[in-house]
Amino acid sequence: MITLGIESTAHTLSMGIAKDDKILSNIIDTYSGGNEGLIPRKMADHHTNVFADVLTKALNAAKISIDQIDLIAFSQGPGIGAPLSIGVSAAKYLALKYDKKIIGVNHGYAHVKISEFFCKVKKPLILYISGGNSQILIENRDGFYQVLGETLDIGIGNLFDSFARAIKMEHAHGSALSALAEGGKYVELPYTVKGMNLVFSGLLTAAEKAAQKHSHKDVAYSLMETSFAMTCEVTERALFLTKKKHLVVCGGVAQNRHLQSMLKTMCHEDGIRFGVGPDEYNRDNGAMIAYAGWLQYKKYGQTKLENCVPITNYRIDRMKELLGKF
Ligand code: FE2
C-alpha cells in the first residue's frame, strides 16, 4: 500500500510517501518566524504558498504519480488551528479529487511509531518532547498509549523558544539557544518536578529575570541544564516504576545532543537500552504521518470523511475514544 502523509500541525509543512513501512520520500519546508515568533495566520499562509511545491517534490523524489497513491494520511492534531486546517482541507480535497482512502493520524502517535520503527523496539518507555509536548508514555495491551507524566504547563521546546524571544535572539529557536549555551556557567534557577510531571513556566520567568543580571550565555546554559535534569529525573522515575528495559526519546527536542548524552548516561547507569531515531524523523515530517497512517489503517480502517476535521487538542490518550467513534 502506498501512503502519502501530510504534516501541518505547526510551522512545518511536510509530505512524505511510504510503501508499507518503506519510506520513499520526505520533503520538509519549515516557516521561520524570526524573532516575532510563530504567528498562526502566517504559518497557514506559508503552508498554502508551498503546498503544491512540496507535494510535487514528494511525488518526484518517490518516483510515483498521484494515481499510484492508495491512502492519504494527514496529521489531525494536536496542533495550532490555522496551519493544521490547511493540511486537513488539502488532504480531503486530494482524497475526493483522486478518489483515495483517507485517514486522520494523531501527531504524537506518529512521532512514537516512527521512532520505535527506527530503534527496532516494541513497547519501550517513550519520552516525547517537542515544542508543545513533553510526555512520558507507555503502550498498553490494547495498543493504545497511556500518559504516565507530562508537563503541567508549557512544552520544553516552547520554554526554549520563549526564552530565546525574551532575550531577543534573531533566530528564536531551541537549536540556536543550544549553540549559545555552549561553554556557559551555571546560575541558580528553580527546579520543579511533581512525581512524573514537569512544570516549566516558573523556570521561564526566573530565567528571564536572571538574564537581566547574568550573561545570556550563562542563563541559556542554566535553563537547558535545569530543564534537562528535570526531564531525566521524571523519566528515570517512570523507568523504575514500569520496570521497562528500553527507553526511546522522540520529538523535536530529542534531536538535542546534550540531552541525548544525559539520557544515555542515565540509561547506562541503570542498565537500560537507549534509543533515538534520525534527526530528520524527529523533526515534524510527513513520512512519519504516512508510516503511522498505514499502521493505523491496517488495524482500524479509514476515517469517515465527516470526521476528517482538525482536533487541536487531540491528546494521544484520546485515540481509543476517537477511533471508536470514527
Ligand atoms: Fe512534532
How would you sum up this structure, described in words?
With 326 residues, the chain is an alpha/beta fold. It folds into two domains: 2-110 and 282-325, ATPase, nucleotide binding domain (Nucleotidyltransferase, domain 5); 121-280, Nucleotidyltransferase, domain 5. Helices cover 46% and strands 20% of the residues. It has eleven helices and twelve strands. It has helices spanning 40-62, 81-98, 107-119, 156-166, 174-181, 201-210, 216-242, 257-270, 279-282, 286-300, 319-325; strands at residues 2-7, 12-19, 22-30, 71-77, 101-106, 125-129, 134-139, 145-150, 193-194, 197-198, 246-250, 273-276. The strands form three sheets. The chain has a five-stranded mixed sheet with strand order 3-2-1-4-5, sandwiched between helices. The longest helix has 27 residues, at 216-242. The two termini are 22 Å apart. The relative contact order is 0.19. The site of fe (ii) ion has 6 residues, from helix 3.
SSE diagram, text form:
Elements: E1 2-7, E2 12-19, E3 22-30, H1 40-62, E4 71-77, H2 81-98, E5 101-106, H3 107-119, E6 125-129, E7 134-139, E8 145-150, H4 156-166, H5 174-181, E9 193-194, E10 197-198, H6 201-210, H7 216-242, E11 246-250, H8 257-270, E12 273-276, H9 279-282, H10 286-300, H11 319-325
Helix pairs in contact: 1-2, 3-10, 4-6, 4-7, 5-7, 6-7, 7-8
Bound molecules: fe (ii) ion.
